[in-house]
Every structure is written in C-alpha cells, then in structure tokens.
Amino acid sequence: MPLSLHHIVIDAHDLPALARFWAAVLGWQVLSEREREVVIGPDATAPVGICFMPVTDRKTTKNRLHLDLTAPAEDREDEIERILALGARRADVGQRGDESWTVLADPEGNEFCVVRPKETLIG
C-alpha cells in the first residue's frame, strides 16, 4: 500500500496563535492542542491536516516549501483582503509584478500564495 499525506508540519514560535490564524484562513478548526503540538483540519476524519510544532530559531530565508491557496476568481481579491485582516502581510520573494499569484506571509513570516483558480492539478 502506498504512503499517503497525513500532516503538513509548520514550525512555529506561538503554536496556538499560528494554528488559529491558519484555521481562520482555511475555515478549519483546531482539532488537538498540546504543549508541543497543535493540529488543525476541516474535521477529525479529514485525510490531511496541518500540525504546528515548536521551534526556537528565527526564520531567516524564503521557505523551501509553501502552500498555494485558491478561491473562485470573483472572490480572490476579497479573500486576499480577508487574510490580510487576519494578520497576514504581503511578501516580496522576487516577483516581477505580472504573476498570476499573490505572495503573502503568515504572522510568523511563512510565505504562501493565493493563486488563480484552476480545474486540474496541472497547468
């Protein structure tokens, strides 16, 4: 049987705060909150969630892995504004300005993108 994705793990200084931010962004819920691990997901039976783990060092460079989020085209700008109001900020990772995505960073500086909607995983 092949492996399947269980959690995406994000290192964090303030686990509960970052978990609440991402739960609000995604419309998910906090499923488990422990001193050294907070897990969020759409529900307890979802196949994939996000797990926040403690880290002491500061983020110093661009992420090597990031999340791409999408929304219907007519809601994209409103969603970006909603996410900014939750505590995200715009991030510059070398964009030229003609990209079909917007780069944001969460409250701890982890970059992510809001991309154009698409119908498949490719293209």
TrEMBL record:
Chain segments annotated as transmembrane: none
Domain VOC intervals: 4-117
Gene3D superfamilies: 2,3-Dihydroxybiphenyl 1,2-Dioxygenase, domain 1
UniProt protein name: VOC family protein
